[in-house]
Design a protein that fits this description.
The protein is mostly helical. Helix content is 67%, strand content 7%. The protein has a two-stranded antiparallel sheet. The model has no long low-confidence stretch (mean pLDDT 84).
Length: 147
């Protein structure tokens, strides 16, 4: 393998690594958006032919508490009912969050490694170019300077 072919293969590997990192980060971001939607958006559950049950979001529900610190706060299940609590189970959301963490960690490491490899290779090319340029200007041209 020639030097140029090796250089091209190295840059392609670094670019692919960076691209894989971006895709993994996008996948983790999509999971986080789905989790945010499940936490913050109100929803409805189809009950039967008579209609549906409207449920508040898991974060913004009316817990029945007033401004005093002594009032007992209700849980989501107490405030909205068992059907709403089961429809948006926190264990499912926690499972999705745990799935997204390795995707994000691997994506960050892949992207950073690829970007760093390309940046260092670019720096090496610039240093090589500058060294070649300074050695060209330092070589004598063969002419005698005017006196």
């Amino acid at each position: 393998m020639t030097t140029d072919a090796h250089e091209i293969a190295f840059r392609q590997r670094a670019d692919r690594m960076q691209t894989r990192g971006i895709f993994l980060l996008v996948a983790a971001g999509c999971i986080w958006l789905a989790l945010a939607y499940q936490l913050f958006a109100p929803f409805s559950i189809k009950r039967d032919a008579n209609g549906s049950i409207e449920c508040a979001s898991r974060v913004f529900y009316d817990d029945g508490g007033d401004d005093s610190r002594q009032a007992r706060r209700k849980t989501y299940e107490d405030a909205e009912g068992i059907r709403c609590a089961i429809a948006r189970d926190p264990a499912d959301m926690l499972g999705l969050l745990l799935l997204s963490l390795p995707l994000a960690a691997i994506g960050i490491s892949q992207y950073t490694s690829g970007a760093l490899s390309l940046a260092l290779r670019h720096h090496k090319d610039e240093v090589t170019y500058l060294k070649a340029r300074t050695t060209e200007s330092a070589e004598p041209s063969g002419e005698t300077p005017p006196a």
